[in-house]
Write a structure and sequence with these properties.
With 655 residues, the protein is of the alpha/beta class. 31% of the residues lie in helices and 22% in strands.
Length: 655
Amino acid sequence: MKATSQTEIHSYLQENRIFSPPDAFSANAQISSMEEYRALYDRSIRDPEEFWSQIAEQLHWFRRWENTLVWDPPFAQWFVGGQTNLAYNCLDRHLLTARRNKAALIWEGENGESRTLTYFELHREVCKLANVLTDLGVKHGYRVGIYLPLIPEAVISMLACARIGAVHSVVFGGFSAEALRERMNDAAATVIITADGGWRRGGVIALKQSVDEAATGIPSLRHIIVVKRLDHAAPHSWVEGRDHWWHRLLAVASAQHDAPPLDAEHPLFILYTSGTTGKPKGIVHTTGGYMTQSYLTTKWIFDIRDTDTFWCTAEVGWVTGHSYVVYGPLLNGATTFMYEGAPMHPAPDRWWSLIDRWGINILYTAPTAIRAFMRQGDSYPAKHQLASLRLLGTVGEPINPEAWMWYHQHIGRERCPIVDTWWQTETGAILISPLPGAVPTKPGSATLPFFGIVPDVVNRDGESLPAGEGGFLVLRSPWPAMLRTIHRDAERYAKQYWSDIPGCYFTGDGARRDADGYFWLMGRVDDVINVAGHRLGTAEIESALVSHPQVAEAAVVGRPDELKGTAIAAFVTLEAGTKPSQLLKQELRDHVAHEIGSIARPEDIRFAETLPKTRSGKIMRRLLRDLAAGQETVGDTTTLEDLSVLACLREDEET
């Protein structure tokens, strides 16, 4: 079904009872209805400290905390005085149970090779690397850079750092040497763990070469550990005493290692995210609070069970990979699945064959990927049964109703609930989401807040806005997985996140609430276009475009305009078999005007075979803004999946 209007979509949903997910998918015995959700949510915000204490007690602590929360706005401390170890909770505590010989991690490479590590085997590898890092002089609080492909060694590296109290900073393998240098310099990393290379779309990514180029500008760097991923290729260069082969170090390392108690507020990781000043921000998360909220959101939002194989398609270089590839599933004793390659490589149906072959139960991916599969057509998923799937999730951006419908029908086969989640690098864990079996879904809405979370939609003065009125999404109280600061820049942390809206954490996102209290994300505030004094969310215009039966995907940006100040420019990919034309451009302009209003009619529409995306599947709207403005050069393209896309987009098809 290709819906052509909001009316058709909502009619279908009502007829098929999508607003009331089947009872078979209840999150757990505690939360199986909207009434139970509201009762527990009310308790969680009336007494959040008691709520989070009860959850934390489900995990292992070497010493119990004295104060659940110490809040000195804008700085929070959770589980103060408590001591725990995240790696111990992910691994050691499972070894005394039936999970000991159960698969903790299943991995498949782009070329079809695969590895499975049980909880016992993963524990051994983590202990070995923990001993290696200690022998190399890595101490409590030292920073370790991780610059790897999506391979098991990335998970082992993160857990080994967490085990010894080193602070890991994972840098996405698609970043350039300069981007790596900037991040590792800011973190003052003493060790970088990398590989001789990685595979992507059949080609080699020269990771060690990038590390070598970056290393000359990282004075704190003492050691580079290199995973041998490419048997036929030699590393770019080798510095004796500095460079070490992973396999040689681990071959002689002891598999015995006692996880030390770490303070709940001990820094766990630094993850760099884009900054408005151009300098990446080092977001700092700590151990106890992040652990507790990652554990619970995975358990309840994904209804995770002991027998589940959980596939979050994110790279571990992003926070989604941290929380829902590594820590969340392992804290819950599930099996986490990783695939190294691109979504449609080497075969268009690779994802669907992976789900069938490995019996994936939960698929958590980005709306951009879903829309790309929609454009590809329905025949590829139809070749596979996908019978093991029982729950689907989306992350990274608002999902338009048309993509939601396709996901529900062609991947979930109209039996799997969908959790459309909202959160950020800074929040550490999901904050707004449906609960399967309890919180009914509305396609396009992230629905209601998770327990203990108090979001609001406000104006610039921090005043709550009525239902239906768009404003700024804020959080009015602290939560356990929240960022604690920006590395080496507490002043910037306070200014950027806590000063724009009085007394609130400002997410940077625009949103509105409907009459049922459901939250609808409108995109980043800087993705709101001001056209002749009217504020229009790009996500809403994109959704209107994609609701046209001949449009597969769309990205909307603003460009300077002498008359209106800002004009709307749309980049559109079409359904297979549809040819671009001037007539279709006009039809799409009229369609948007009909769906939203004439003020939202795009000034420019540019057809493209594909849109510029990162390797994790996000559309790079920043590049599109540069192109729409007619700039000769565009900004940083280090995370761009396919550089040839830019050349194609420069050609405005006039057919």
